[in-house]
Amino acid sequence: MTPNTTKGVLLAMTTAFLWGFLAIALKVASTMVDSYTIVWFRFTVAFLALFSFFLFRKREMLRILIKPPFILVVAALALGWNYLGFMQGVSYTSPGNAQVIIQLGPVLLAVAGIIIYKEKLSRRQIIGFVVASVGFLLFYRQQLITMLGKEADFNTGVLWIVSGAVAWSIYAVFQKKLVQTHHAQTMNMFIYGLPALLFMPAANFDHLATLTPGWWILLFFLAANTLIAYGTLGAAFKYIEANKISIIVAMNPVITFITMAILSERHVSWIPPENISPQGYLAAILVLTGAVLVVKRKRKKIDGNL
Q1: Rounded CA gap, 186 and 195, in Å?
Q2: Whether the predicted model's global pTM rises above the 0.90 cut
Q3: In the chain, where are the structural domains located?
Q4: Angstrom distance (rounded) from CA 245 to CA 243
Q5: CA-based Rg of the chain, rounded to a whole angstrom?
C-alpha cells in the first residue's frame, strides 16, 4: 500500500474500533439517561471542543458557522438523525442487534461510491466484498432469529436503526464531496453544532444535574467517541475510496461482539450477555478476510503509482 492508503486504512480502523465500543457504552448509558439528552450531550461537547480549538488557533475557520454550504447543512441534519436513530435502536434492542441493522449504512455508502463517484472495483476487491458480505450474513443469522421473538421492541428498534442507517449514508456521501474542498475538522465543527442546537430543547438538564461522577465519565467517553471517530472518518475520505471505508468500518460489529464476549466471561451485571456460536467466530474470520482483500492492492499497481 502507498503511504496515503496506509494512513487512510488506519484512520478508518480507528473509527471502526470506537464504534465497536460505542454501542455497548450507549446501552449502559440508556439505563440512566434518556436518548435525546445523550445525543445532545455528545454533539455539544464535541462542538465546544472544536470551537474552542479554532477560536484560539485558527479563528478564520469559524467563518463556516456563518455561511455554511447547503450540502453541509444537509449532512449535519442527516448525522443528527443517525445519532438519534442508533441511540433509540440500542435502547429498544441490544448492542449486537443494533450493529447488525446499522450495516445498511456502509452498504449504501459503498453503492454510492460506485454509482456517484464512479469508483472502480478490482477483481480482488469484488471477491473481498462478497466474502465479507457472506461472513456478515452467517455471523448474524442466529442473532436475528433470536431477536425476532421480541416483536414489539424489536420492530420499533429496527425502524429507528434503519432510518439512522439511511441518514448516515446521506451524511457520508456529502462528507465525501465536501472533504475535497473543506477542512475536515472545520466541517465537523458545524456538523456537531447544528444538531446540538436542534436537540437542546429535548435535553433533560434536571436529570443531568443528579448524575454521579461515574455516569459523567461515561457521558464524556461518548462525547469523545463522537469527536475522535468522526474526525478520523472524515480524514480517511481524503486517502481511500468510499467502498474501502465502508468495508473497514463495517467490521465494528465484530469488535462489539468480541467485547461483549469478554464482558460475559467476567460475569458483569450491568449489561446482558450476547452469546456467539462457533459458526459466528468462523463468520467473523470471513469478514476480516474479506476486508483485507478489499483494502489490499497488487504490488505492481502500487509501483505504477509511485
Answers
A1: 15
A2: no
A3: 3-305
A4: 5
A5: 19
